[in-house]
Amino acid sequence: MKVKVLDTTLRDGEQTPGVSLTKNEKLRIASKLDEIGVNFIEAGAAVTSEGEREAIKNICAQGFKADILSFSRPIVKDIDYCIECNVDAVNLVVPTSDLHITDKLKTTHEKLLQLSNNAIEYCKDHGLVVELSAEDASRSDLDFLETVFKQGLSHGADRLCFCDTVGVLTPKKSFDIFSRYSKLDAPLSVHCHNDFGLAVANTLAAIRGGASEFHSTINGIGERAGNTSFEEMVSALYVLYGDEYETDIKMNELYSISKLSARLTGVYLQPNKAIVGENAFAHESGIHSDGIIKNAKTYEPMTPELVGHKRRFIVGKHVGTKGLKTKLLDLDLKVNDEQLKQIFKDVKSLADKGKTVSDVDLQAIAENILDIDADNKIKLIDVTIVSGNSVMPTASVKLDIDGNEIIEADVGIGPVDAAINAVNKALSDFDDIELVEYHVDAITGGTDAIIDVIVRLKKGDRVLSARSARPDIINASVEAYISGINRLI
Question: To pair with 139 at 20 to 30 A between CA atoms, which of 187, 334, 374, 454?
Answer without folding.
Answer: 187
